[in-house]
Specification:
about 260 residues; 13 strands; alpha/beta; seven-stranded mixed β-sheet; 7 helices; Glycosyltransferase family 2 protein; four-stranded mixed β-sheet
Length: about 260
Amino acid sequence: MPAVPLSAVIITFNEEANIGRCLGALAGLADEVVVVDSGSTDRTVAICQEHGARVVVHPFAGYVAQKNFATAQARHNHVLQLDADEVLTEALRGEIRRVLAGWQHAGYSLPRLTNYCGHWVRHGGWYPDRKLRLYDRRLGAWQGQLLHERYEVQPGRTVGQLQADLLHYSYPTIESHVQQLNKFTTIGAEELAARGKRAGALQLWLKPVWKFWHLYLVRGGWLDGSAGLSIAALSAWGVFLKYAKLRVLTRKPATA
């Protein structure tokens, strides 16, 4: 049987630093590349067009809705969804070709290896960080709330596992990690507030301490040296920020 055709789908916003590397690794693998951009003001769209991608401009509707919209723009039912800061290795390209030549599951998960300030992180719970990114769109959909979107296949459907790494260039600097933490903790606090959650004083103290202890000691973050220490410390700080912001969001207004 001939290989099934593949659509690669990416959502972007001001990703000129990353998108060229992502698109370059897709060359010769995907039958089409669709980029759904939410109004970039840098060279993202121009770079995508230079690489032959089809660009669709669509206002950002939240990660779940945006990724479902992007999946719907594909011409083919078999979809590889990537983030702009992710890159296929040659080994992973080969695995995907073999899957396309004999598709068996509703979707396939990929192990993701993250580069943190120039260091490949293999401990602290950051690896293999499996993500379901290769799927038959007829058999599942993106699910979740404001954060932590995930692709879920229909009940009873099976998911295969690929073994080669998907490279994730997430944090080139400490500053980029801090900026993302500030953004995502705001969204996370809003999500918790929408679910009726509240933050007590014990959560503000104990949850960050547990986060650091769990990532750095229990999950072996210390094995990644200074990168592991930074990840554990900033992740703990992020937990504090999320619950501190939740506390402000759900605080009862003062009475006169």
